[in-house]
Amino acid sequence: MTTTDDEELDKIKDFWAQYGKTLILGITLGLVVVAGWLGWQNWQGQRQTQAALAFHQIELLSQANQPQEAMQAARKLASSEQGSVYATLALMIGAHEAMSQNDTAKAGIYLQDAIKSTPQPGLAALARLRLARVQWAQNEPDAALATLKETTPPPPFVSLYADLAGDIQASQKNWPAARLSYEQALRDPASAGGLVQIKLNNLPATNTPSAPSATEQAPASGTPQS
Q1: 36: left (phi over 0), alpha (psi -120 to 50) or beta
Q2: Residue 96 above 90 pLDDT?
Q3: Domain extents for the chain?
Q4: Count of alpha carbons within 13 Å of 97, Cβ hemisphere only?
Q5: How much is the pTM?
Q6: Phi and psi angles of residue 186, each rounded to the nearest 5 degrees, phi first
Q7: To the nearest whole percent, how much of the chain has pLDDT over 70?
Q8: Out of 1.20.1740.10, 3.40.50.1820, 1.25.40.10, 1.10.287.110, which CATH number does the structure's domain 27-150 have?
Q9: Residue 194's pLDDT is what?
Q10: Which of 21, 93, 150, 195 has the most beta carbons within 10 angstroms of its beta carbon?
């Protein structure tokens, strides 16, 4: 071995003496992080699978006309998977089952929980739309309209919100407001020429003056009006 080779070997030894432990520790930590990440991913996958199976069980209970069992399972899943899509959908199934039992109060609670818990704007908008329907069924039209106006819905829900608002306003005989709501709903091409147009056409006219009665006829010339 030449002198140069000896010098290079000494440099390598010095390098490993100084940095070897640090390098090994860094590699070890890197492997631990990668293993931990893979384990977390695997755990997340298993959790998602379990949530999907639990949600499917709720669907089966609903299809089997077992509302109480479906509502209990929905509440359990919502508690264990807070904020997940499965939790929100489970709560909406729970609301559906509550309505099938004419329990509008419980249905409203399920839907309010769904609105609060979901980070998905579309699911929140759907739950809010159903909550407004429940409130209307509870003979609380003003509360239903307030629910619809509380936030601006995502574009796919704008016409649905306006259509329901028109229905509620028409039930209150608030014809001008109902007309405006139906017209807003019709701005969506999907609503044009459909049921919304029929409802708009069937609203009573609000700008046609009624004919005066016999007692309201103008008095004869020269007779002062009272």
Answers
A1: alpha
A2: yes
A3: 27-150, 152-203
A4: 25
A5: 0.69
A6: -75, -10
A7: 69
A8: 1.25.40.10
A9: 87
A10: 93
